[in-house]
Amino acid sequence: MVNRWNKTVVKDKKHFGPLVLQRPYYQEEDRPTILVIHPPGGVVAGDQLSLNVDMQPDSKALISTPAATKFYRSLGKTACQTQTVEVSGGCELEWLPQETLFFDRSSVKNSLVFNLHDTNCRLIAWDIVGLGRPAMQEAFENGQLVQSLTINLHEEPIFIDRFVFSGQSELLSSPFSLDAQTLMATMLFYHADKNILKEIRSLLLEEAWSVSCGISLVDEVLVLRTLDSDLDDLKSRLIRAWEISRSLVIGVPPVYPRIWKT
């Protein structure tokens, strides 16, 4: 992505296989909404998905997906998804995909990396993980998930989140971890400070569901975490947090993406 006359456009788009980008659309004049589409709808054992985004200086974008990403069960082979975003100086990125669902018996390595090249980058991102299919009475009893979420600044890590879930792990049921909830989400904000933490926290405390969230400041990365077993409830919290934080972190008022209304 490049900034041309104060408008970000997608340049040098390439794809191999079924993973494609939909034509960007503009709800705001200076930044596009870009949807990453995987037409097969799900990822099977042995598949490898790789997405590389390069944001040139002063470019701006909201990147999302039109539907959930699903990892189907495996008889042995591991599916891999690797997403890497290069964020140059002056860039503003909102990374707000739909949820990623991991079926029972799936075997997955899932990695998301943001490489920030300057301290004046701005980032709001979330990652929503669903384990099993509760509506089908299917728990994540025999799956294996290795998940990592990283933010690097000047090639040095400033946030690393990594976990390994298996069907036999006490992390799935323990009160100090998932507490038997099937959904978890991590939301990240950069660049943040104590004043932004205080303001976002005070606004979130006004919400009835605030007890279901935790928020902390790790260096200059604000981290919000939440658990649930109801997807709509969990998403509503994240969207409210985005509404509150967009003007504080990025400096522009919230404009509700059309894709969230479909």
UniProtKB/TrEMBL annotation:
GO terms for cellular component: cytoplasm. GO terms for molecular function: nickel cation binding. Its main location: cytoplasm. Keywords: Chaperone, Cytoplasm, Nickel insertion. InterPro entries: UreD (IPR002669). The keyword Cell inner membrane does not apply. Pfam families: UreD. It is found in: Cytoplasm. HAMAP family: UreD (MF_01384). Required for maturation of urease via the functional incorporation of the urease nickel metallocenter. UreD, UreF and UreG form a complex that acts as a GTP-hydrolysis-dependent molecular chaperone, activating the urease apoprotein by helping to assemble the nickel containing metallocenter of UreC. The UreE protein probably delivers the nickel. Belongs to the UreD family. This is Urease accessory protein UreD. It comes from Thiomicrorhabdus xiamenensis.
